[in-house]
């Protein structure tokens, strides 16, 4: 046991010092800068010779921008990411739902003599048409007529036929969404006609006159909007005729 303790002490004891290292650097003609850097590192070591990891050392916060020492700049990525939430548009705007435009289109349909704004009417807004189609089917259901399939079927076929016709008549062309939006918004007077069937029957001369008036109202509003949106001045009557045929089918479905 005594031999082992003596070997342990002899193994770890050493007479090598920092001065010997400096003398070795001077004797062998080593680089002076290398020796000075080693000396500065030994002076910066904490007392007691404990090893401190590099990630636990305090990092400098003010760099001068010299070589191998990049200038300190705060991390602005997280700040910009937080500010990005404030700059995002509202959810309804991302979904394409604009209540102001919906209200303007509804007023334009209710007043056929009001001039239509082409920039607003040329949008592919399907919120109003879906609501009016559901309202038409609901009012017919209240009158004892389950015609949801007929409403959606005639709407789809009418949109396809009007899209083909308007592309042949206009120079700029029109999209399917714009045609469906205009025809759907102009279905609002037909909802008024179907609501009247809940109160009284339309199978008579007064009902026929009211149905003809509603057909003219819907076709006049649709032709006016198509004329302003597609810049088809002087062709309103040509557009109103196929629109009247389409809304005549809805009127027949409502009356009978």
Automatic annotation (TrEMBL):
GO cellular component, one term: trans-Golgi network
Transmembrane portions of the chain: 126-144, 182-202, 208-226, 238-255
Membrane topology according to the record: Multi-pass membrane protein
Cell location: Membrane
Phylogenetic lineage: Eukaryota, Metazoa, Chordata, Craniata, Vertebrata
Organism per entry: Alaudala cheleensis
Keyword Membrane: yes
Chief place of localization: membrane
UniProt keyword annotations, A-Z: Membrane, Transmembrane, Transmembrane helix
Family: Belongs to the YIP1 family.
One BP term from GO: endoplasmic reticulum to Golgi vesicle-mediated transport
Keyword Iron-sulfur in record: no
Protein's recorded name: YIPF7 protein
């Amino acid at each position: 046991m005594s031999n082992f303790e003596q070997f342990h002490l002899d193994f770890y004891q050493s007479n090598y010092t920092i001065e010997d290292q400096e003398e070795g650097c001077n004797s062998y003609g080593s680089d002076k800068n290398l020796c000075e850097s080693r000396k500065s590192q030994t002076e910066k070591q904490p007392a007691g010779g404990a090893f401190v990891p590099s990630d636990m050392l305090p990092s400098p916060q003010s760099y001068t921008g010299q070589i191998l020492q990049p200038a300190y700049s705060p991390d602005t990525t997280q700040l910009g990411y937080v500010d990005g939430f404030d700059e995002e548009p509202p959810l309804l705007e991302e979904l394409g739902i604009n209540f102001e435009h919906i209200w303007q289109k509804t007023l334009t349909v209710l007043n056929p003599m009001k001039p239509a704004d082409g920039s607003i009417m040329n949008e592919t807004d399907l919120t109003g048409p879906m609501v009016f189609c559901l309202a038409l089917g609901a009012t017919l259901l209240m009158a004892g007529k389950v015609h949801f399939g007929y409403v959606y079927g005639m709407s789809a076929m009418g949109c396809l036929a009007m899209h083909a016709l308007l592309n042949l008549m206009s120079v700029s062309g029109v999209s399917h969404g714009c045609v469906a939006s205009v025809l759907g918004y102009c279905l609002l007077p037909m909802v008024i006609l179907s609501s009247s069937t809940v109160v009284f029957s339309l199978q008579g001369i007064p009902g026929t006159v009211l149905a003809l008036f509603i057909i003219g109202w819907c076709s006049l509003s649709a032709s006016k909007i198509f004329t302003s949106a597609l810049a088809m001045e002087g062709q309103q009557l040509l557009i109103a005729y196929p629109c009247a045929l389409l809304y005549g089918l809805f009127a027949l479905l409502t009356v009978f």
